[in-house]
Amino acid sequence: MEYLVLVTSSLFFLISVQYLFGLYARAKLPPGPIGLPLFGNLLQIGPKPHKSLAKLAKQYGPLITLQLGSVTNVVVSSAEMAKEIFLKHDADFSGRSVPDAVAGGLQNHDVATPWISAGDQWRTLRKALSIYLTNPKKLDTLQELRLKVVTQMVEHVKEISKRGEVVDIGKLAFTTALNQMSNTCFSVDVADFSSNQDVNGFHHAVNTVMEVDGKMNFADYFPWIKRFDPQGIRKDAKAAYGWLDQLCEKFIIQRLRHRESNLPAHGDLLDSFLDFRQENPVNFDVKQIKVLLMDLFIAGTDTNSSTIEWAMTELIIHSNIRQKLRRRMCPGIRLAERVMSLMLMSLIAHFDWKLPDNMLPEELDMDDTFGVTSQKAIPLLLVPSTIDD
């Protein structure tokens, strides 16, 4: 009994000392709410941190100090302050702590675009992206591939329109974005518009990655529990990242064999990255190409699809804006150069949309879920009717 009292008292003493020390250290940091011993401000953040942080910003200003478990965080919540930090002090803030879901799930995460440290590899990666991914001329050469996928999407929605069925806008946008990325990277489709099943496992893998990377993981705030993976996040992340890793590796091996046989080039991003690798064999190898392709798939599908779903939701609520966009977009629809623009313009230009079951726009649920991207809590279902060409 005395031993138990001694242990309890010691733990209480250590927690109190840590708490008081934390209060002293915070005096030199931006303002923020005072948290609880051990937990800090975790309970104040809640299940929707983006909304909690917005409320705290109104109270404490554009820079907020939060103690999340054993980790001290400074939150930037204004465009002006973000510009000050990322443009004027970018070198000082270039390092990032890697979430446990990424560290435990993604092989070679240290060369992934979001987590790579500044150095020769980072500069080489940035050069490759500026030449092949953000260069307008390169994007123009891939425009026909993107247009092909959107044409398939339009034809699919026309068939649904004939049957008078509803369209799950989020799933439609995800399939479109996925095929646009796979064509841009590999010149192939990897998803089927006509199937409601996740045939190739892409949707599940990408959704899992976005979910575990965006979920509040206690292992990130209490490092001593990482080995136990109490929420199973590391396990799920490893399975999803591993699936995408194997898939991208398969595409790379097939392409290398294709090139060794002196067959015609595809001219897609994979060909471009492999060409760039020959010029930069030290800092841009097959390992880095594989991780980069995974980054592009994850970022280019989930982000685009959720943005399209939110945009269509707003256009349903504000029908007058939808009509204005249609008059302005139709003449130049084939000139669209970007994934989201082309997708959204096609949905608006070719179809009228209404809510099912005589539902009114003001009845739409606008709640969201927290993650790497903000998803609609309830999927947007719309009934399309084809506009005569």
Automatic annotation (TrEMBL):
Any idea which UniProt keywords this protein has? Iron, Metal-binding, Oxidoreductase
Q: Name one GO molecular function term.
A: monooxygenase activity
**Highest taxon listed in the record's lineage:** Eukaryota
SUPFAM superfamilies attached to this UniProt entry: Cytochrome P450
Biological process terms from the Gene Ontology for this record are:
coumarin biosynthetic process
Which InterPro entries does the record cross-reference, listed alphabetically? Answer: Cyt_P450, Cyt_P450_E_grp-I, Cyt_P450_sf
| Protein family | Belongs to the cytochrome P450 family.
Instruction: Provide the protein name.
Output: Geraniol 10-hydroxylase
Q: Which organism is it from?
A: Heracleum sosnowskyi
Classification lineage: Eukaryota, Viridiplantae, Streptophyta, Embryophyta, Tracheophyta
